[in-house]
Design brief:
Length: about 130
């Protein structure tokens, strides 16, 4: 004897099959979506160079102008950057020893790079667009 087929529930009054749609749950309001910015408004961006000897520093300011100068570390520069603007910095040491560059946004370290030896080069040049 063969088993009976399983009963099937049907729609209103059990006369037609009932379709079910997949259920999706939106994320809670307190979780930002993938496209939501972490911060909005102006940001304080600080470049800093530490090391021995002198360093040739190149950076792009929020106004888009590229600047190059020779500095004696420690050296730093702070800019106010609005959403959509980009900045970057790199340095090339002219002496021996260690050279470090850091890039901070709103007081939080975003990137740091260290190099040692003669003619050290460091790059904290991820262009940051907010």
């Amino acid at each position: 004897m063969s088993p009976l087929p399983a009963p099937v529930a049907t729609g209103p009054a059990f006369g037609s099959p009932r379709a079910t749609a997949p259920v999706t749950t939106p994320p809670p309001d307190d979780e930002p979506g993938e496209d939501a910015p972490e911060h909005s408004g102006p940001h304080k961006v600080t470049f800093a160079i530490r090391g021995n000897g002198r360093a040739s520093v190149s950076f792009t300011a929020p106004d888009g102008r590229h600047r190059r100068m020779v500095v004696s570390p420690p050296w730093s520069r702070t800019f106010t950057v609005n959403d959509g603007q980009k900045v970057d910095v790199n340095a090339h040491g002219t002496g021996s020893g260690e050279l470090t560059c850091t890039l901070s946004v709103d007081g939080e370290l975003v990137k740091s790079a260290t190099s040692s030896g003669g003619s050290s080069t460091v790059d904290c040049g991820d262009s940051l667009g907010f």
